[in-house]
Write a structure and sequence with these properties.
The complex is a heterodimer. Chain A is mainly α. Chain A has a two-stranded antiparallel ribbon. The model of chain A has no long low-confidence stretch (mean pLDDT 96). Helices cover 29% and strands 11% of the residues of chain B. Chain B has 6 helices and 6 strands, in the order ββαββαββαααα. Classes of the chains: A mainly alpha, B alpha+beta. The interface between A and B is large, with 51 and 42 residues.
Amino acid sequence: MGEMVRKASTEEIVNHWILAISCILLIITGYAFLFQLKQVGAVFGGFNGMKVVHNWAGVVFIVSLLATLFHYLHESLTFDADDWAWIKMGGGYLSRSAKKTPPMGKLNPGQKLYYLAILAAGIAIAVSGFAIWLLPSTRPVTLASHLVHNLAFILFVVAIPTHAYLGTLANPGTFRIMVYGTVPIEWARKKYPKWMKEIGKM
Amino acid sequence: MQNPPDISATAFNIIRFSEVPSETNAVRWLFVSRRCMHCDDAGCMKICPAPGALYKTAEGAVAFNKDKCIGCKLCVAGCPFDVPRYDAQNKIGKCDLCAGRIAEGMSPACTKTCPTGALKFGNRDELIAGAKQAGYGKVYGELDLGGLGTIYAFKDAPKLYGMNESPAIPESVIFWHNVLKPLALIGLGGAVAGALIHYAVIGPHKDEEVK
């Protein structure tokens, strides 16, 4: 494979797995609560057990999500002219033929917008979840929390499968970043020329 | 003072009195049996995430199973009448129309002990017909929320008895049930289908070869 370049640190990889597993567990148990899926509840020894799993997976999720602030926030808040051009052409995802995409930094704008959306929805779903879990039931607060929790849930069930697809099948060679954290240097030069320039490897 | 002051996880039914102004008497007291209204379209059941925690009996009463209750208290917010209460173990407790007694062929304890016939248990249609025959133009709960299981023949405006004139399930709960729940399925299905279609039609991302 030749020379490799490190895209994700061990800490980032471990935290992303914690985030991914807690998130998927929350989505599965979330659907089970939403549609009263008894078979799913039985896996957790009933709905009381599933509630404990859902609540504490939520704690793990929000701690892990807040840890990502140190990993992806700074990069996700910077958009340059190339990013806007990338957004205008849909990142080249809407064409069958190879399209010349603008040179990218470490993250492309799709990834940046995805991160910001997950961060916002993640904080909203966690805060509303804690409100339902821990606050005494007061009608307006509980109803508002219930609504926010479910609105954010919809964003998650659309965004997470899309994110998983884009990180695997849609972009061969990407998934290894989540496992090893490294990519071949030639590949990285093609995908993230501006970032490679930044770290002096172009 | 009213005592007990309100329904609780163990006080399923209280007689609430309201002191209202009167032209003919120094005081006028109106009494109402405050308890679960056993809605046909019950907000508590709609919002409850735990199967079997709240259920309908054969007679149409909204009953509960403490073992199945997960203590989330969403039913408190979903109830149009502020009825569900929680015990010290964080489990629901409310009037279940004495489901256990009815199952044994007995009438609910409240109607059994009521000495004047102010509380009656029986066929809903017959009770409504009886009230109308007795001259009550409107029966409270006849049509609300799909028809309430607890109905009142009030001599005066329901609000004087402390009852909501037009009870309804909170709009956010209806919106969640009718819009957000289907959207949660359509969203997931759409994302998965979209990915599959994208993979089949457009295929994996291709970068222009770097020369």
